[in-house]
Amino acid sequence: MTKQMIELTNIHKHYSDQIILDNVSFHLNSGEIVGLIGPSGSGKSTIINIALGMIKADEGHATVMAELMPNRKVLADLGYMAQSDALYETLSARENLNFFADMKGISRGNRQAEVTRVAKVVNLIPYLDRMVSQFSGGMKRRLSLAIALLGDPQILILDEPTVGIDPALRRQIWSELQSMRDKGHAILVTTHVMDEAELTDRVALLLDGRLIANDAPQHLETQYQVNSIEEVFLKVEETN
Ligand SMILES: Nc1ncnc2c1ncn2[C@@H]1O[C@H](COP(=O)(O)OP(=O)(O)OP(=O)(O)O)[C@@H](O)[C@H]1O
């Protein structure tokens, strides 16, 4: 049965005299991947931060698994990968994963298997004992993604997860996300890569703080009479 995992209702947010989100309502269900796309500065990270309870909306409310946010109870069911990596540079990748596994309450008995599982998804097994300060930008993104996957959370929120990641691994990561979706997980991804938007079940298009489209990629392409999400995006920008 499909469950509503995240619900944002009539969210308004402004900073000084700039309106960032203008009456945005948005939901994420179990068993779907939603792509949140929009130009730089359109409010994607702000939506995520409000859903996570890290930023307070001026009006409206956010719930995760029917709990009003912020709420510590749901954090164990949430995997979050921020846009900038929050890693311990002076620790190895394995030590980082162990630390976050402890934070997520993964038992010591299961920890090693879980660390190996998530490191495999992002091809980091050969580098687990290397210090993070020696990692490239793409390797750091991969480690952040592995951390978000720890504990197999019901909800995954990924802010630009594939920046700096090469095409073969990008494909592998998307196939992992799709298999998680098929098992009923709910996944929200922001991306600037329009090809990736095509791989989602639903695209939420944000422009100037308003959600102006929210539908399956194929439906949007039919509606706007174009062949790709990139063209939908350009057409929407032109006409708004
Ligand atoms: N703490 C803050 N104080 C003032 N303005 C802010 C603050 N945080 C974000 N903003 C502004 O809010 C707007 C939306 O920012 P947000 O980070 O949500 O955009 P985004 O769509 O995620 O952008 P990008 O794709 O570049 O990551 C931007 O104009 C940004 O400058």
From TrEMBL:
It comes from the Bacteria. Pfam families: ABC_tran. One of its GO terms (molecular function) is ATP binding. Residues 6-233 form the ABC transporter domain. InterPro entries: AAA+_ATPase (IPR003593), ABC_transporter-like_ATP-bd (IPR003439), ABC_transporter-like_CS (IPR017871), P-loop_NTPase (IPR027417). SUPFAM superfamilies: P-loop containing nucleoside triphosphate hydrolases. This is ABC transporter ATP-binding protein.
